[in-house]
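Same chain as my last thread, 296 residues:
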Amino acid sequence: MARPETTTVGQVVLARIEAQADVLAGLDDAVRADEPDAVHRMRVACRRLRSALRTFRRLFATGATDELVAELRWLGAALGRARDREVLTERFTGQARELPAVCGPERVARALQRWGEAEYRRVWPEVVAALDSPRRRALADGLTALLADPPLRGRAERPAVPELARIAAREQRRTGARVEAAVAAESAPAEERDRALHEARKAAKRARYAGETAAPAVGAAAERYAERMKAVQDVLGEHQDAVVAAAALTTQATPSGEPFACGVLYAWQLTAATTARAHLPATWKRASKRKLARFR
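reply #2:
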């Protein structure tokens, strides 16, 4: 990449897209082989690509990236069902081993591990089918075509640092609005409150990825911005994981003969969700400072 003072915002964004497209392409074999963490890494690459194409869509010709965004969402969803089972299984087995001795922690952990593995095997064919589908090949071709002949608009020629700072500030404001709505929904029905918190999490993640995109051109200031947004994402992610885990414990992940242990685990999820909500205001306060997005 050119020197920071001569780098354009288009160059920075295309470098991000190219790097993540390479990650995505390089993981096909690892995912098919079900190597550890491969599904997770491919899903993250999908999210980073989709976020870049959405966050910086005004740099591209109108509608030029819409199909890629939709197909990345499709692939991410196909990977997500398997990844969600991995996350739940890891959470349940880890927490089960911390249960009081009276609950038989190792026995419960083994039962939950078996449940998780069975659930993973049930959805795994969806991952393989997605990778082998014409849509996956068309997605790869579409990313290659975008990078070979980028449909950039004139604004992509703007100097990188001030434009990246402007976009980071916009994403920070967007996240702030979602966080404020989530905090205001604390006394709303649980489903409405949890939905607002999930939307805030997605906004924080998008802001984090904007900071990651800017980091090669901006340096430490963008890295700090991304770290603060990641902290918000992590708090909200713990809340979401706890909500999903609690729901699973009332429907699927309930080993026969272990109602007491599952009741304890369920209570732990409720506590984890409450704790995450309590931590959100302070975590957001550190990420909400306007100077955080001033990259100049």
